[in-house]
Amino acid sequence: MAQELSQRVVFGETLVELASQDSRVVCLDGDLATSTRTDMLFKAHPDRFFMMGIAEQNMFGVAAGMASVGLIPFVSTFACFTAKRALDQIRIVIAQPGLNVKFIGAYSGILTGKTGKTHQSVEDLTVFRAMPNVVSIAPIDGVEVRQAMHAMVEYDGPVYLRLTRDPMPVIMGDSYQFQIGKAVTLREGKDITLIGTGEQTQRCLDAANLLAADGISAFVLHVPTLKPLDVEAIVNAAAATGLVVTAEDHSILGGLGGAVAEVLGEEYPVPMKRIGLRDTFGESASNAPLLEKYGLTARHVAAAAKTLLEKRST
């Protein structure tokens, strides 16, 4: 069985690592430390941890002030609060001046531990893709989370990091080197291209295995950075097969599917299908029923690929 890691646990561990290496790294948390695992930093470096309470707008304002005097604040809360409740503060005091604040969207997507639609964020990538100056990252696994966080500290400017809650298989090897703005080819193929982001890329890999069992060769591209987008990699992946399926645990409106459609519409038009939430909110349930109801399973990705292939053959 493949090793599994939780992105939020790796986030906490890496935050401690970064703070130990760089005295500028601090963390602000919105009363969710045991959920987001910033409690690890509190235990290791209590003087670098700031519990701001349930006051997200104020928390981001404080982070902006810290960044203005040379600190590197990581602001941690759930994605639903980062992308909505604190949005005006992020836009005005962080994004517009381009301050060096790293903000986290924990518990993203619909797999949020049965918290339901109030706590499920399926619009966050759309929001931050459209906001000038903000880099937006959605890692596939714990290895990529750690690599991305190191890259975030090296990058001078606002960065949004989208994290998921539950343990998932490790895909990236020890030699992997994340780069902001670079997509990664995980599997070569000639019949259909599957493009994923975040943990949904893992389901693209599973879908590729399902397709292979039927004699279909799938190209799998992982897009961990939604902005800046790797246009060249997306065009090359589309050109490899002439058909594209995108997959994300997010709305298809403005997320990965929208981004890929924009690129291909301008650069290399090909038939495509988008897998994701279709203009709807989620609900409270265990992970498997949610993935099934909203069409996010590997089987749904594979079915979309077969539909495109059937249309091309007629």
Question: What descriptors fit this protein?
Answer:
2 domains, single chain, alpha/beta, globular, Rossmann fold, about 325 residues
Q: What Rg is obtained from the alpha carbons, in whole angstroms?
A: 19 Å
Give unreliable regions as ranges.
Answer: none
Give average pLDDT, whole number: 96
User: Largest beta sheet: what is the strand line-up?
Assistant: 3-2-4-5-7-6-12
Can you walk me through this structure?
- By secondary structure, the protein is of the alpha/beta class.
- The protein folds into two domains: 4-169, 3-Layer(aba) Sandwich (Rossmann fold), CATH 3.40.50.970; 184-313, Rossmann fold.
- It is 42% helix and 20% strand.
- The protein contains 13 helices and 14 strands.
- It has helices at 7-21, 33-36, 39-44, 56-68, 79-85, 87-95, 124-129, 142-154, 200-213, 231-241, 256-267, 287-293, 298-313; strands spanning 4-5, 25-29, 49-51, 72-78, 102-106, 135-137, 159-162, 168-169, 184-187, 192-196, 218-222, 225-227, 244-251, 272-277.
- Helix 9 (200-213) links the parallel strand 10 and strand 11.
- Helix 4 (56-68) packs parallel to helix 6 and helix 10 (231-241) packs across helix 11 (256-267).
- The longest helix has 16 residues, at 298-313.
- The chain is globular, with a radius of gyration of 19 Å.
- The mean pLDDT is 96.
